[in-house]
Structure formats: structure tokens, C-alpha cells
User: Fold this.
Amino acid sequence: MKLALGPLLYYWPRQEVLLFYDAVALSPVDVVYLGEVVCSRRHELRLPDWQALARMLADAGKEVVLSTQALIESESDLKTLRRIVGNGEFLVEANDMGAVHLLAGSTPFVAGTHLNVYNAETLALLIELGARRWVPPVEMPQAMLQALLREAPRPPECEVFAYGRMPLAFSARCFTARRYNLQKDSCAFRCLDHREGLLLKTREGQPFLALNGTQTQSAAVCNLLAHLPELGQSGVGIMRISPQARHTLDVVALFREGIDNASRLDDAARRIQALVPDVACDGFWRGRPGMEAGASS
Amino acid sequence: MHAPMELVCPAGSLPALRAAVDNGADCVYLGLRDNTNARNFAGLNLDPTAAQEGVRYAHRRGVKVLLAINTFPQPGAWQRWTSAVDTAVQLEFDAIIIADAGLMRYAARKYPELRLHLSVQGSATNYEAINFYRTRFNVQRAVLPRVLSVSQVEQVIRNTEAEIEVFGFGSLCVMVEGRCALSAFATGHSPNTTGACSPAAAVRWQEKPDGLESRLNGILIDKYREGERAAYPTLCKGRFKVAGETYYAIEEPASLNALTLLPELVRIGVRAVKIEGRQRSPAYVATVTRIWRQALDACARRGEAFSPAPAWMAALRGVSEGQQDTLGAYYRPWK
Assistant:
């Protein structure tokens, strides 16, 4: 089982991002995804900055993948997409069928979690087009994933979202700007003030979602560490940790410990609970509403 | 000049189909009674016998019929989706509205003559994505997710040979269709796999001393004081608390109404306009279809001088969610 660090979904000040990835270089992750997946207005780091980080991380021995934006609307979004696709140096994670269109047949790619792949036929198609790794939708339960990989003629490397607030939806609307009665086009980059998104609670105070600009996340943190053995048995080869505002590299260390040493998994799974910021969940994996938590999460 | 714009209307039942046909639809769309379509609600949709009757009714009156097969096939059930495609061909549907790339390949290989319309659930928001489906599966038309401004729609049209269909009226998805796991997160019912969002089975209304509560699988979606108009608890249209403020944090209960944009949509080359609402009554379908038919005809006569009659706008508002309407993402400040 390998360990991946997903793309940074939040908007942090440039200096913080650079410091974060300096630490990532020294951490026990195998794969690092870089780039802006959520909002084209975010520019603390631009593509050349991400590429520079990619080289630094590659020199540190990491496999680096450049992730493309999930919701592509404008011509300038497409321009950025084309530059990522043609970067000539790093593998690309396609998060939109437009990206697949540009990569197909010429460049190997990672079929990202925001492509809708729910069956072996569609997975087989993407593999024919060059996908060599696949990240299933966050809502996919273990039973479906296992069956799908069994049906797939040549199952690729499979990577599952295993830790962090889950990306649940995208919109043209920016919900962070909306909170401040601002329009998206003049949002004053309020996302910079919310390092792990804006918590949305019900009117009786139950944490429900997290608003991250145009992306809506779960308030609960998905944590699949305790499910590590089932993930392996289902054909998953990589667990993805999504960068969080706090404790990300401690979480990485505990996942590493659980992966490397089965006898310490229970202990690591117990210790990780102290690092989960609000509530944990694992419902999707268990075929339940995503926000539910089993005894082991 | 562009070819006239088609009016594409919803049919959740045979009476709704007749209402759409009788009131001026150019096309009606419907789904079968299972999770192969994204309005998989109890009592809704048509079995193959009713669908056949519907196709005959429409065809005799020169109206096209489209079958929505717009959820994603899942392991162990692939054949349910392929047989939906087979059914569409056997029953002589004019096109299928389809979201899954693997299923599109099946349809394109087995029935090269079958017209494919890329469903909004396919989440193609840019021309490169549309051209993927166009190039590989000869998709004839793409239905755009409700995320683009008018100028972005125009940019798409200029860069693809596929016809473009946009939403004109009906309940508004605030999230990119096909990429929203909110309902699955809260209720376990996913639009992508079970074909349902915020399903009625998960809804509970509770009268409390301080007001009426609406819950979805236990989650408090909204609360209404005496005299406030209660709305169906679609989970993105409730009032929530964010950083100390309680408000419609994602969207108000409102319907999209693009009627005022009609001349612009015609000018930029939109080929079809879609009315949402397979879950709505035949009366809704009749009202909305009739008004949009009149509007499209008036727009064809008057061109840029077209403006919608106040009576139309009032009638549409009357059947809108929360009796409110919006231009949604067509209007940039909405974003």
C-alpha cells in the first residue's frame, strides 16, 4: 500500500504553502498531487510555482502528479488546462472529461476522483485512452469498488480518498463570497481567511458541511485508516490523504505506521482520533450515508 | 439564421406527456421506472408499455420523444442500463439522453443510427469535454450544466459541432450536475447511482412549539415560523448557520427562469431549451409548456425586440419553487 497526498484544496498564503511542501518533502508519502483544483481566481501560486514545487518534491524522491481544475468554465481555465496537459515533465491527474480529451491516446494520466467512473466499461475505456491510475468517486462503497475491480479486464492502480474533509460538490457560485455578501468576481479572496473552509452548521448546531469557495466539503473528516486491511483486499494500492489545516503530516505518519506494521494498526487508528478536528466519518466506504461513522472510524 | 430553437419538456407520466405534446413541446423526455434515470421517485416514470403508448401519442403529433438514461451503471447491473438503451431503440425513441461514457460506447457501437444527447449529468461544462463525447461517440447534442454565463455558453457553441441545449425553466441545481454527492452524504441516496436527490422517504416534518421543522435523514434543513412558507427540504436550499449568521447559505428555494434571455439564447445559437420537472404534475407541465411555446413563437416573430409578457412571468413564478425565480449562473452576479 502506497500513501499519497492529494492536491491542496484550500487557499493558503503562498509562504504557508511553500513551508507545508518543504515538510512534505521530508514526510513518508510516496505520491504528491499538486495544483489548483478548486478555483481559478486563486493565484498565490501559479502553474510555474507548482512546477517548481513539483521538481523540488521529485528531487526528494516523491512521485509528483499535477492535478487539473475540476470545474472548467472559461477559455482561460482551458488555457491553464492545456499548459498542465502539455507540461512534458509530470504525470497529470484529469479531473474533467475535457482534460481526458486532451490527454487521450498521447499521454498517460491519472483518472481523477471528479470523473464519473462507476463501472468496469467506463474504467476500461479510460484505461484504453491512457489512464494508468484511477481515483474512484468519494461516494463509492467498498462493495461496489471491489465488484468493479473484479469486473475490470485490466484493473489499474486504484487510489482511494482515505483522510480529510471530502470534496462533495462544485458550483459556479462561490459560497465563501456569498457568506460575506460579495460577488465571486470581487470576492476579496476571503478563502485566505479560512484555512480549512467555513464550517456550515444546522440551525441546531450540528456541523454538516464546509464551504471552500466554489467547493462544498463534508464537515466530518473521512478517516479510513482502520479500514486499511479491507482497502488492500479490495484492490486498493494507494491511500490518499487530503491536506488539512492541522496535523496533516502527523496523520501521514500514523497511516505510514499502520501500513508498514500491521500489528500497530489498531494503535495508530486509536491515536489518529485525537487528530481529527471535528467528527470523523466513514459512511460512504461502508455503503451508508457518507456522514455516518462506524465504531472503528 | 439559426434553425429554430426546440422546446424540450418533461414527462414523469403519460398524462404529463400528453400535456407537453398538447401544449406545444417539440420534444418530450421521460425515464423508465428504475434507477437508469435521475428522477427515480416512487410513482414516477413510465414502464415500457406506457412509454410505447407515449411515443405513439407524440409521434402522431409530430413531437419527438427522448429517453433519459442519465445515471451511471454500476457493477453487477450493467445490463439494466444496456437494456434501457435497447428499449429506446425498440420503442423508436428519437434519441437517448445519456451520461455514462462506457454506456455511450455501447450505444454508439450497437446502434450507430441512434441519436445520443449528452445528459447534464455528464457534467460537460466546456467544449473540450463535449468534444470528447462528440469525437468518440458522435454525440449529437450536449445539455449544459447550469453553471455557465451566457457568454460562456456562446464560447462553447463556437467551439463544438454538437448542438447545445440549455435549461430554460425549473428547479435549479446549484451544484454542477453529476458531480454532487451532497444527497449521498446526507441520506445515502445519490443522484449518480440511485437517481434521487433529497428523496421524500428521508423527509420528516415536525411541528415544534417554536415552529415547523423540516429534516432530511434527521438533519435539520429548515425551520419555519408561523406564517412563513415552508419549502421542500432539498438539502442545498435550507437555512444554515455559517460564522454566526443564519441564512440560505447555498441557495434559496427558487426556480431558474431564463425567459427574458430568450433572444440572446437564440442569437448565440442555442438549439434547444429544456424545461425541468419530471417530478411535477401534468398541470405544471401544461402551464410551463404553453407559456414557453408562446414565448418561443413570439421571439421568432420579433427577434431582439422580444420581451416576455408580464402574465407569463407571473404564471411561471406561480409554479416556481418558493414562488421565486432567478437567472442563476446565466447572470454573473448570481455566482
